[in-house]
Automatic annotation (TrEMBL):
Protein name (record): 16769_t:CDS:1
Organism: Dentiscutata erythropus
Length: 41
């Protein structure tokens, strides 16, 4: 995962890619949070 963030910094000029990758990260984080809450119940 750390390498992915480094690649984003390298592709800084391509805002479209940055936007798409950022959206994917946000969606993945939400899914992880939901999964964790279910396990705690």
């Amino acid at each position: 995962e750390g390498n992915v963030f480094e690649e984003i910094e390298i592709d800084e000029g391509e805002e479209i890619l940055l936007g798409n990758e950022r959206t994917v990260f946000e969606e993945n984080e939400v899914v992880v949070l939901e999964d964790s809450e279910e396990e705690n119940e």
